[in-house]
Amino acid sequence: MDFGRLITAMVTPFTDDLEVDYNKVNLLVDYLIEQGNDGLVVGGTTGESPNLTKAEKIKLFETVIERAQGKLKIIAGTGSNNTKESIELTQAAEKLGVDGAMLVVPYYNKPSDEGLYQHFKAIAESTKLPIMLYNVPGRTSLNMKAATVVRLAKIENICCIKEASGDLAQVTNILLGTDDKFLVYSGDDSNTLPMLAVGGHGVVSVAGHVIGNEIKAMINDYIAGNVEKAAKEHQRLMPIFEGMFITSNPVPVKAALNQKGIEVGSVRPPLVGATPEQQQFVKNLLQE
User: What are the residue positions of the site described as Part of a proton relay during catalysis (predicted)?
Assistant: First the structure.
């Protein structure tokens, strides 16, 4: 399963009283289609998944599917550190008609390599959906080793991984141990081009909210062999890649969207909105 080259991990819009704003979800989907995205991750880290209820996630998946009308792939963030709950949410998302599910490495409980394998295997075997694994040790405190990914890739519907370890050697070892059908996506915008260089397929992006078309152009240039042009674009976009992480994601990108007139509201506690200084930083970044 190929979800495309540019996938944006969509923020979740909130009202002033921090309820999910499904009307603004529709407008955001329209905007992200215009930004050149091939797919969206809904209810992932950038979508504040830890602060969404199961009912909110299901309604969010349903809303995005209906609005997108097949114009891009919809990947539901259904992973957690609870295998049983992840299975239930994945099956619910499948019934709604999503194109795939993204499963994060279990956080906090720190399972062994075998525990990781059994966790992902159980979820994958409970559904026919294509599965994107998600390795993000900076958030989970646990790095899923290349050998475990290679082992999981043998399960028929585990088709790709969002790799946010920042370790290009690990990415290379994953690619060495899997066939060409297994795709590796960068989990960090700043590593998109370096990961393409070692055999990666694309990116699950945060910056795709604000510079999606530019990221897509950079990827296309690299694929077309215009490596020097892609490198120049990578350099030009780096301030935004880094600027979207001056504080906890998705605080900066929500500030950027609001400043661009794409109203998505603030963030739910325990996150807090951008400070005046951070707002000004984002404003300067967008102007530059």
Answer: 45, 108
pTM over 0.90: yes
pLDDT at 288: 86
227: pLDDT strictly greater than 90: yes
Other residues' Cβ atoms within 10 Å of the Cβ of residue 221: 19
> Are 149 and 161 contacting, i.e. CB atoms less than 8 angstroms apart?
yes
Structural tokens at position 150: 């290679």
Phi, psi of 286 (to 5 degrees): -65, -40
Task: Choose, from 57, 73, 162, 216, the residue flagged as catalytic.
Answer: 162
The residue from 117, 134, 185, 222 that is catalytic is 134
Per the annotation, the verdict on 134 as an active-site residue is yes
Tokens 């102007």 -> residue: 287
Summarize the annotated binding site as residue ranges: 46, 204
Instruction: Give all domains of the chain, ordered by start, each with its CATH number.
Output: 6-233 (3.20.20.70)
**How far lies 185's CA from each of 110, 167, 193, in Å?**
23, 13, 11
At 55-91, the pLDDT tens digits run 999 999 999 999 999 999 999 999 999 999 999 999 9
pLDDT of residue 251: 98
